[in-house]
Amino acid sequence: MLFPPLLVFASIFSACCLATSTLGATLAKDEVEALESIGETLGKTNWKFSVDPCSSGDESWAKFAEKGAYYVNNVTCDCSSSPCHIVRIVLKGQNLSGTLPPQVTRLPYLQEIDLSRNYLSGSIPRQWGSMQQLVQISLLGNRLTGSIPEELANISNLTSLVLEHNSFSGNLPAALGNLPKLERLLLNSNNFTGELPETFARLTTLKTFRIGDNNFTGKIPGFIFQNWTNLKDIRIVASGLSGPVPDIGPSGNLESIMITDLIGVESTFPRLSNLSKLENLILSSCNLIGKLPTSLQNMPNLETLDLSFNKLSGEIRISLPEVKQLFLTGNMFTGAIPQWILNTNKKIDLSYNNFTSTGGVDDCQKSGLNLFASTSRINNSGVVSCLGNLNCPVEPSHYLYINCGGKEETINNITYQADSDPAGPSRFYRSTTHWAFSSTGIFLDDGTEKDVLILEKNQLSSSIGQLYINARLSPSSLTYYAFCLHNGTYNVSLHFAEIEFTDGKNYSSLGRRIFDVYIQGKRELKDFNIKDEAGGAGKPILKNFTANVSDGTLEIRLQWTGKGTTVIPVRGVYGPLISAISVVDPCRLIALIALSHILLCVTV
């Protein structure tokens, strides 16, 4: 196609004019002065004010970063006219140790401020509420405290408010319900209290809402699923809120629902209707009772269904062949396990249930199907039925040592057995030496299956000790099961060291791993935080317990209950972690030592 000469000339002329209008444009002087003050308040010391922030191309002002990068250093200018103006400040993952700058109000064109994953302290300046042009605020992963200023409700153009993983407190301001364009409200892992304001019913533009790991009170408001018709992603995890789960739908937008660890009484399954785009439905530890509803079959895009640790019962009479990951751990299901489950190669966990038949499967693991403790136990003996013939030795064992997640190690003449199976979302592993483990769950926002953690050489201290340079992880529940033990009273020692977080003045030190520990079905540790208990990251800590073995078996279970951070240092870091296990019958051991001394004396 040939262009008319006049049109070609006009196009070239327009382009030249645009280039000329921006060529050599520099940042407005008052905004340069504002940046100097902002940098001082933040603790940002490497901005080079000897060059222009907008036109110099210096990496101290703007450095290329891939989408989703954890380190970002960008000050973005709009130079469509002269002088230039700052429109975005994104300083992520830099361990800035200052406070939030009130001086950003001196940047009248600023649309976005992102200070995620730093070491900032203090509170949100009330002055920020005067910045009508602001569209996005992200303060994820800092040490910020105080309440949310009501003045933020004056930012009428605000679409995204991300305050998760800090130490904010107090009630949520009712005025936030007046934000007419808000699409993302992320408040996870803070210390917020009180009920969700009724004014939030007006937040009809919301697409993402996350309030987990807080201290809210009251019930989950019905307006969430009634009024918020644009909602795509909701997470209410260990929020402090009570059930029941409200009825959900209809919605043509919902893609992910995660509601877990609710307080309150038992309730039946919520009504689900017309959730055509739903991909993830996670309702674990929600005190649900009754049978699985047939409405679960009417979600054509459902990939992950997690209903673990409820009190759901009866037979499974529905079919979900398209679901890729199904977790029904810790319920009360009965009857025969459906054939569509037994024949699948998907990730399915049925552990800890009361099925009467496994359809001829005589093992605890079949492809991606975990059947550990999924049926009634043999003669109420305590032995898990899927283990079949235990092949116990004539003389039962009186000790067990496991190097969780690592290779065989000998420490102080004690050999810790290797435990290096890579595991996965619904995994049962049986050792040849009379112990096993069962792990369930997936790490959300993380595409890897990292159930074994190995400490990198440049992390923490090299003197941590061989038992602690690796660990076994689980996103939800991890059970170690020992059998063929001599009956008696055992000393159980659990070895821990936090090797995913760090110490010092950096955002990686702000992570909080919290989980519960059960031994023989009794909760021995609630809200256990390895780093806090040990007095820092990379420091070993030993927790000692006494357990009675009366049927030759010992069960140790670690469970995440939704508390703690999940995005520090990166997304998907949470859940129980253990470094090693020591189990010893001290009476039996003393008797054997005494016998050896007698034999030695007789020989002499």
Largest sheet: 15 strands, mixed
How does CATH name the architecture of the domain at 390-588? Answer: Sandwich
Q: Which of globular, elongated, flat, extended, rod-shaped describes the shape?
A: globular
| Strand order, sheet with most strands | 1-2-3-4-6-8-10-12-13-15-17-19-21-23-22
What class do helices, strands and sheet pairing give? mainly beta
Average of per-residue pLDDT values: 90
How would you describe what is shown here?
This protein is mostly beta strands. Among the domains are: 243-388, Leucine-rich repeat, LRR (right-handed beta-alpha superhelix), CATH 3.80.10; 390-588, Galactose-binding domain-like (Jelly Rolls, Sandwich). It contains six helices and 38 strands. The strands form six sheets. The chain has a 15-stranded mixed β-sheet with strand order 1-2-3-4-6-8-10-12-13-15-17-19-21-23-22, with no helix packed on it. The chain has a six-stranded mixed β-sheet with strand order 25-26-24-38-32-35. A hairpin with a 4-residue loop joins strand 27 (426-430) and strand 28. The longest helix has 18 residues, at 5-22. Mean pLDDT is 90; it is low at 1-23 and 594-604.
Q: What labels would you give this structure?
A:
mainly beta, Jelly Rolls, 38 strands, Leucine-rich repeat, LRR (right-handed beta-alpha superhelix), 6 helices, 604 residues, 11% helix, disordered C terminus
Quick summary:
This protein has 604 residues and is mainly beta. The chain contains six helices and 38 strands. A hairpin with a 2-residue loop joins strand 22 and strand 23.
